[in-house]
Structure formats: structure tokens, C-alpha cells
Amino acid sequence: MVGQTFLSDQVKVLSENQKIMNKGEINYDLILGCIHCGLCLNNCPTYIELGLEMDSPRGRIYLMRALSENRINPSESLFRHIDLCLECRACETACPSGVKYARLIEETREILEPQKKYGSFKKFLKSLVYEKIIPSQKRLLALFWFLWFYKKFGIQWIVRKLKILKLISKRLYEAEILLPDIPRPSKRKLIRELMKPTRKRRYRVGFFKGCIMEFMFIDINIATVNVLLKNGCEVITPENQVCCGALHIHGAKTNIAKELAKKNIETFEKLNLDAIVANTAGCSVVLKEYPELLKDEIDYYVRAEIFSSKVKDISEFLYEIQINDKFSEVSMRVAYHDSCHLAHGQGIIKEPRELLKMIPGLELIEISESDLCCGSAGIYNIIHPEMAKRLLKRKMDNIHSTGAEAVVCGNTGCIIQLLKGAQNNLKVFHTVELIDMAYKNNKI
Ligand code: SF4
Ligand code: SF4
Description:
alpha/beta; Glutathione S-transferase Yfyf (Class Pi), Chain A, domain 2; globular; disordered N terminus; binds iron/sulfur cluster; single chain
């Protein structure tokens, strides 16, 4: 009798586990990797700010487990705790068990997404941005021409004065506030598809230009290409490359991210490249993880492995090739901010610092909590403006207190966020801009 009960319990456990496995959504083994030690807690921005277990990595993993085991149902409170995570990966850096937290949160968001109730305007906006605009170069170009006109010809002034966007959508209003100056979109043509170095070629490099970087910060892209050329790289910037898919992965739109990944692989694999260089950490981390994204795609997995093995963040690449150090002086006191997707996502911490230290006259200042998220996190600062503002204030206090003249980092989202928080003429640079500046006036 006891044996029978034991057996039926085992069958029950097995069928429960089967139910979990059949869901095939959150990787249960990864959840079990968490040993609840709590070492990640004080590295988590939302836990630091709120002090709530359910807004910590460990607490969120508890929730994921409870969801997987059907002990809790999706609810507004669950959505809130899961959505408030910035996906900054600071917990991965801190975790002694090697928990792949980013993968867990992405899988959790993917299964929760269909259960959320969005208003029709929000639904329309989400589908417009994720499905129609970001995946299409032509539509992105049209959008940025519109934004350029919007800023250049005073439309922005009227919209802000009358607070028009606030009447339509709070999120749209928050997004508009973040809009930096938009360069004329035609400036992107300064980067031609093939650019050759004046001296002997050392490497043949593909440049991943980044969909937002290309339009909002084309000067950073130009600086990147200049620096690569000055280091003997032949630079190929394929016109038909597309968004890396980062925003789609964070926004639980993995199927679109997969299609974008396939298109990028097809575009770059034909080019016989030594490396594929990206200057936005949020892009390079995703490009490096294409094999994980495409692990179930038989025609693409191996190609994704080859593609990703060539991907380098610009600071990583320049550090590895032993950059030409014929620099002129750049006299500036500069604070360095570790972008999450560079420091936590790729472990790139020393490379940008070492490159900056090579520039004569440049004083590199370390800030407190350098690797704590600034609150940007893709479109997090639009979706969760309150938490984003708290984290930005914390970051800016740490930067301003050093008396630095500029802050430097390696990610588009951080640059947008830091520009919003910068006071007292604090300038914001990408690492590669300072390197380019140091090459100017110096014939090499
Ligand atoms: S990814 Fe960042 S915000 Fe999310 S749980 Fe980890 S440390 Fe916290
Ligand atoms: S550090 Fe890792 S193992 Fe420890 S609680 Fe956090 S996620 Fe779990």
C-alpha cells in the first residue's frame, strides 16, 4: 500500500514535471541553478532602489519557478516585478552559480506577453515600432527625416509648449523628452559601403552600424570608421544590414529578432571578413548571442556560430589589434561609465579604459558604482520613467561629484540617457570619439 502511494506520488511528480517541460517556455534547469545565496542582491539596481525581494534577481527567479510549477498565475503584480527588471545583467556578473539570468527573464517575458492586456493605442504603437519601423531601413530613414524636420523647424517647440503629446500618451511624452539633436539623415552617406585605408591593409572588417546609432549619432559612426581606417582596416558597411534584434528580444518579440538575425547573417557571411565590429554594446552583445537565439534553426545555427565568432565590440577590437598610438593631446578630465551590456553582457571592462589611458593629456576618472545601470536599458526609460529617473539621478550624482568635464561610455542608450542628465556643461562621448579626436591633427 505504502509502495503504491509512493509510486502514484512519483507518477504525479513526473506528470507535473512533464507539464512544465511541455510548456517549454522557461528553462527549468536554469531556474534550479539558483542556490538562493543572495550575492546578486546588492548589485541589482531595482533591489538597491526599492529594497524588495521580489524586485531582486533571486526574488524574480522565485516567481519564475512558481510560475513554471503552476503555483501562481500571471497577475498585474507578477508583470510589474518581471517588467521592472532592466535586464542589465549585473546579477550574472555577481552570481557564483553562473545563473543565466538574461535568458530566464527573456523566456519569462515571452510567455507573459500574450497574457497582458494592452489598450488599442498601445497595441498599435507597439506593432508599429517593433514590426513596421525598426526592421525596415526605409521606414527608419523616413522616421528620422520627420524627426529632423520636427526639431529643425520649430514643431518641437510648439508640441512641447502646448503639451500635445501628454494628451495623447504619457509614454510618447516621456519618449519625446529624451530626443537628442538629430543630425541631417543624409549625413549617413559619408560612410560608403567600401572604405579603404590609405596605408597597407591589415584587416577586412564589417561595420555593424546600428539602427539608432546611424541616425541619431552618425558622428560616432563616422569616428568609428575613421579610427578603423587609421588602423589599417578596410571597412565594409553593408547597406542591407538590419537592426540586431535587441529591442525585440527585450520586448518579447523573439520571432522578429530571429528573422533580423538571419538577415544579418546572410548579409555579412558573404563578405569574407576578419571581424564584424559594432560600436553599440547593446548590439554587440546580441550579435554575439545569435547562436543561442537560433539554436533551434537547423539551417542557421552553424552559420550563426561562425558569424558570432567574428563579432567584436569596437573597444575590444581596437585593444586586441594593438591600436596605432600616434595620438595628439586631448586635454580633458573624463569619467568612465560602464555600459551594462559591455561590462556585464560581454565582460569588457579594462579594454576601453586602457585605450583611453593611452591618449596623452586625458585624465581618466573612476566613478562610484560605475557598473550600475544608468536607467536607459533599451526603451526602459520610456516604459518605466520613474525608476529610470531614480537611476539616472544616482548615476549623475556619482559623475558630477568627480568634477569631470565629460563622461564617456560605449552604448547608444546610455549616451541618450546621460545626455538627459548632464548638467554644468558636462559633455557625453563615446570612447571611439575620443580616440578619433586624438588622431585628428596627427598625420599617421
Ligand atoms: S538584470 Fe539587472 S535589474 Fe534585472 S534582476 Fe538582474 S541585476 Fe536586477
Ligand atoms: S547570486 Fe545567483 S545563485 Fe545567488 S541568489 Fe543570485 S541568482 Fe541565485
